[in-house]
Amino acid sequence: EQQNQVFAEENGKLSKTVDDLVLISKFLNETSEGLSDSLEQITEFLADQIVANKAILIGTLENTYKQRKDGWSCDYNSVFGGRTFTLDYNAEIPTTEFNSVMDYVANRALDELCLDRNDFTEFLALPEYTPLTSNRLNAAMTIYTGRALDWYFPEVNENGLTQDDWSNAAFDCENLIEKYKFSS
After folding, report:
1. pLDDT grade, residue 68 (50/70/90)?
2. What is the average pLDDT across 150-160?
3. Sign of the torsion angle spanned by Cα atoms 129, 179, 158, 108
4. Cβ atoms of 94 and 155 closer than 8 Å
5. N or C, which end of the chain is more exposed by having fewer CB within 10 Å?
6. R_g over Cα of the chain
7. Other beta carbons less than 10 A from residue 102's beta carbon
């Protein structure tokens, strides 16, 4: 009988332990379901934030590049002031001044936009830009850099770089692999 009493006490303890384990199991199941939902919601939120931040970075980069594109000629007259081709924008830029003008264009825009000086020089050899004048240089810069920006920041359904391309380059055109850089 004493043995039965010991068994009864042990069964009682085991029964209470089982009941406690069932409660703990229910609690863990309920809690983990909530955690899973919360984790999924947090992951979705963070993914949305990353996409939004990429779009903001690309928009800022595009605006910066547009400023470079539009502002390249601000000091053109000051730098080359008094020369015939700045006094008369239809006068030919002398071949002796060509490298100085190209250095200026490269420093003010091409380098900042990661555009190849040699590619632009070839672009300037097109018939519509020869002989080269300040007016034709201005037109060539507008068209060439405009095409570059269209490549860097295409509209929907246009060819060009993607958010992932920019992200892989850390949003810096110097980090773009060669096949993604613009050339005419």
Report:
1. very high
2. 95
3. negative
4. no
5. N
6. 34
7. 19
If one compares 49 and 84, the residue with the highest pLDDT of the two is 84
- Which stretch of DSSP H or E encloses residue 157? none
Name the nearest CA neighbour of 159 among 170, 167, 151: 151
Task: Determine the length of the chain.
Answer: 184
CB-based contacts of 133, cutoff 8 Å, min separation 6: 85, 89, 90, 91, 92, 93
How far is residue 81 CA from its own chain's centroid?
37
Could you give the angle at which helices 2-71 and 134-152 cross, rounded to 10 degrees? 170
Q: How far is CA 112 from CA 53, 86, 99, in A?
A: 23, 24, 18
Query: Tokens in use for 90?
Result: 């239809």
Cβ–Cβ under 8 Å, residues 176 and 114: yes
Q: What tokens appear for 152 in the block? A: 């860097």
Residue pLDDT, tens place only, 126-154? 999 999 999 999 999 999 999 999 999 99
The answer to whether 143 touches 109, Cβ cutoff 8 Å, is no
Q: How far apart are CA 117 and CA 110, in angstroms?
A: 7
